[in-house]
Amino acid sequence: MASSLFIGLMSGTSTDGVDGVLADFSSAGRPRSLASVSLPMPAGLREEFLALNLTGANELARAALAGNALAELYADAVQALLSQADVDAAGICAIGAHGQTVRHDPAAGYTIQINAPAVLAERSRIAVIADFRSRDIAAGGQGAPLVPAFHHALFAGAEPLAVLNLGGIANLTLLDADGGIRGFDTGPANVLMDLWAQAGIGQAYDTDGAWAASGRASAELLDLLIRDEPWFELAPPKSTGRDLFNQAWLSRRIERFQAGPGRLADNDIQATLQQLTAATVAQALARHAPGIREVLVCGGGALNGGLMRDLRSALPCPVRPTSDLGVPVQMVEALAFAWLAWAHEHGRAAGLPSVTGARGARVLGCKYPA
Fold first, then answer.
1. Residue 262 reports pLDDT greater than 80
2. pLDDT tier for residue 44 given thresholds of 50, 70 and 90
3. What CATH number should be reported for the domain holding residue 224?
4. One domain, residues 35 and 170
5. Contacts of 125 (CB under 8 A, 6+ apart)
6. One-character DSSP codes across 96-157
7. What average pLDDT score do residues 46-63 get?
8. Which end of the chain is more exposed for a tag (fewer CB within 10 A), N or C?
9. Is the dihedral of CA 55, 206, 267, 222 positive or negative?
10. Residues linked to residue 38 through DSSP beta bridges, in sequence order
11. How much is the average pLDDT of 2-17?
12. Strands 128-130 and 366-368, how do they pair?
């Protein structure tokens, strides 16, 4: 391989922005970050992505235009990374670009990430690797989570541990002491809290859990939210997204609960949604990995002090952010997509049957040459 430099780009379920990392893989596939950037998602584009989670008029054309707009934003992130690291585009082997997930239904055999990798390759003059989920789904897998093999490369040690990513959806990677790798989604992380904060206080999210801290969680509502959703009882492999955990899901349950005695204030509901994330993570670990010695947390939710406190209260083992190990919590997923691009270029399987339930390990992604 002429270059050991790869770029990873990620825009997640929260649709709040694009994170990018330029990484050096010269050390046996263990990346070293050389530059990082976060760009906000333009409000109009964010609204379009959220709208495209639902059926609507002229969807195909709107999705194509949204993909083009996202590719332009990706290209801006790439240019910022190159400038920051003082590296020319010719020095980069490839970009790993995930796209924006708007539909995910592996049981029906499909997943949709809006993207325009050909546009990004044209704008950046760098090869682009995209469409990371489809091959695993074609092999009978969930197509998610995508990052456990990367978590193993970066964090595996002598003790069994878990890596918890708190984006819109929460997902766990379970790293066994004997080298085993498992992973699955546990349910909502920030997605429901963000929806409730947007409606209740007009903010994109509850900064540091401050609004939740002003309320008091309801054990009765928490029980209803968990008990009323069969997905929580499914055994891994499993994955989810806004297809399930969305505004309609939340509204139906809140309205039903509020129709009974003891109406809750909005901040009490926010506190309960925060505990829902922690409780479903704790439930998943207790059922599927009771011997875990430590949980490393990444993603935007790791910056929510209230959520981190709830996790520490709910879990029987130490909980700490990946930044304690020198990996910024908001850059782990972007770094993962740089690794996925590296893995594709080296023919290394990143889709693992122990994670997704696919028929076999698969090399993920499709390449668009520079």
1. no
2. very high
3. 3.30.420.40
4. no
5. 89, 90, 370
6. EE--EEEEEEGGGTEEEEE--HHHHHHHH-S-EEE--SHHHHHTTS------HHHHHHHH--
7. 95
8. N
9. positive
10. 19
11. 89
12. antiparallel
One domain for residues 175 and 246: yes
Separation of CA 346 from chain center:
24
Q: What is the pTM of this model?
A: 0.93
Put residue 133 in one of left, alpha, beta given phi > 0 → left and psi -120 to 50 → alpha. Answer: alpha
Q: What is the distance, to the nearest Å, from the Cα of residue 8 to the centroid of all Cα atoms in its chain? A: 14
254: domain range? 148-317
Calpha distance 145→13 (Å, rounded): 13
pLDDT exceeds cutoff 60 at 57? yes
Total domains, the chain: 2
Q: Write out pLDDT tens, residues 331-369.
A: 999 999 999 999 999 999 999 999 999 999 999 999 999
Kindly state whether residues 95 and 192 are assigned to the same domain. no
Amino acid sitting at position 301: G
Q: Provide the 10 A C-beta neighbour count for residue 335.
A: 29
Amino acid at 240: T
Closest CA to 165 of 7, 54, 274, 281: 281
Nearest to 142 by CA among 363, 359, 345, 367: 359
101 DSSP β-pair partners: 113
Pairing of strands 181-188, 17-24: unpaired
Tokens of 103: 């539909």
Residue 236 has pLDDT above 60, yes or no: yes
What would the pLDDT profile of 266-277 be if each residue is shown by its tens digit? Answer: 999 999 999 999
Region of residue 92 (left: phi > 0; alpha: psi -120 to 50; beta: else): beta
| Residue range 65-110, pLDDT digits in tens | 999 999 999 999 999 999 999 999 999 999 999 999 999 999 999 9
Contact 204, 198 (CB under 8 A): yes
The rounded distance, in Å, linking the Cα atoms of 265 and 310 is 20
Q: Using CA atoms, how far apart are residues 113 and 103, in angstroms rounded to an integer?
A: 7
Are residues 210 and 296 both part of a single domain?
A: yes
Specify the amino acid at residue 230. P
Spatial separation of the C-alpha atoms in residues 335 and 343, rounded to whole Å: 12
**CA–CA distances in Å: residue 192 to residues 152, 215, 336:** 29, 16, 25
Alpha carbon separation from 245 to 90, 193, 215, 305 (Å, rounded): 42, 11, 22, 23
